[in-house]
Design goal:
Layout lengths: L1 E4 L4 H12 L5 E4 L7 H11 L12 H6 L11 H10 L8 E3 L5 E3 L3 H12 L1
Parallel strand pairs: 1-2
Antiparallel strand pairs: 1-3, 3-4
Helix pairs in contact: 1-5
Length: about 120
């Protein structure tokens, strides 16, 4: 299991606390320092079953500067969104936990973190 975190994020710290309490084995990726490539973002999106705009933090200053709320949310714009997430990783929703079964979740709630745990223990 891998978890993409921003150490300054309370949701990320909460997810790590829960994973530790459950004795889970995981790898931490500080994605603001170890920025995911466009291909890695595509892979995680596939595992999440989501589109790039679904994991974009649209209230961030960079998102507002780029005018993301007005970007089309359709297949033809997908690569543009992915390139922007790779260029501005702070826009990626966090934490993202990849489970051992090939799926992933955005672990913003305790339930989502527990879902990733259960998928990794099956």
């Amino acid at each position: 299991m891998e978890i993409w975190i921003n150490p300054a994020c309370s949701k990320c710290r909460g997810a790590l606390t829960l994973l530790d309490a459950e004795g889970a084995g995981y790898t931490v990726r500080r994605y603001l320092e170890d920025v995911p490539s466009q291909d890695e973002i595509r892979e995680v999106l596939g595992r999440l079953g989501l589109e790039p705009w679904d994991i974009t933090r649209t209230q961030e200053a960079a998102a507002k500067e780029l005018g993301l709320k007005d970007w089309p949310r359709e297949e033809r714009a997908r690569d543009r969104w992915i390139a922007t997430l790779a260029e501005h990783p702070k826009l990626i929703q966090r934490p993202i936990i990849t489970a051992d079964d090939g799926t992933a979740v955005v672990g913003r709630t305790e339930e989502a973190v527990r879902e990733a745990l259960s998928r990794s223990r099956e």
